[in-house]
Design a protein that fits this description.
This protein is α/β, with parallel strands linked by helices. Helix content is about 35%, strand content about 25%. The protein has one domain: Rossmann fold, CATH 3.40.50.1820. The chain has 8 helices and 7 strands; from the N terminus they run H-E-E-E-H-H-E-H-E-H-E-H-E-H-H. Strand 6, helix 6 and strand 7 (about 165-170) form a beta-alpha-beta unit. Helix 1 (about 5-15) crosses helix 3 (about 65-70) and helix 4 (about 100-110) packs across helix 5 (about 125-130). It is found in: Cytoplasm.
Length: about 200
């Protein structure tokens, strides 16, 4: 059985997450300043881009120790504050431009084919990006057992993605399952990454 070792968890406690800003041009004349967090130095591991839902920010990925743990596992995690997020203070990106924005953000952050972790409202960015080049992209769907808001509808809709082959319910978790039960979420994501990077 795959687990995240205590040595990795101990190493994660010693790592510092850094906060930066990057300017992203969405289209002619419109650019937004985005706050992002990562762990340095860049070691060349697989990039993971963590987005967030409406009530959250990149800081939540730091507070759950997600960035440090995945860096300690050999990945290159980056968490961003989406436009209008509590730290970005940037102008709104039109719904029709959100896929393009995410593409330009990935370029600005110099990420190489990142795994995208996209909870809740951030799907309004990741799904248009996904459909810009609709190749079969492996997808894991993770939801909380007690999510009564958008979770049930979203889960049903996401099951229609072309290459989803993993569906994970986190027992006792609500809408923000990744935050309610971070240890379980970390293990689900780690197993998915191991499978997809073979």
């Amino acid at each position: 059985m795959t687990e995240i070792s205590q040595a990795v968890l101990d190493k994660a406690k010693t790592l510092d997450v850094k906060t930066h800003r990057v300017e992203v041009e969405v289209k002619d004349g419109q650019s937004v300043e985005i706050v992002y967090r990562d762990v340095l130095p860049k070691l060349g591991g697989r990039d993971i881009l963590f987005l967030h839902g409406q009530s959250f920010s990149s800081e939540d990925w730091e507070k759950t120790n997600t960035l440090a743990i995945f860096f300690a596992l050999g990945y290159q995690p980056v968490a961003v504050d989406l436009p209008e997020g509590k730290n970005s203070k940037s102008q709104k990106v039109d719904v029709g431009d959100r896929g393009l924005f995410l593409e330009k953000l990935i370029t600005a952050l110099d990420l190489r084919t990142p795994v995208i972790v996209s909870p809740s409202m951030s799907g309004s960015y990741s799904l248009p990006f996904l459909f810009m080049d609709p190749a079969n992209i492996p997808t894991a769907i993770v939801y909380g057992e007690n999510d009564r808001s958008v979770g049930p509808v979203s889960t049903t809709n996401l099951k229609n993605l072309p290459d989803h082959d993993e569906l994970h319910m986190i027992k006792g978790a609500g809408h923000a399952a990744w935050k309610n039960k971070p240890e379980e979420f970390h293990l689900i994501l780690y197993k998915f990454l191991l499978k997809e990077t073979k």
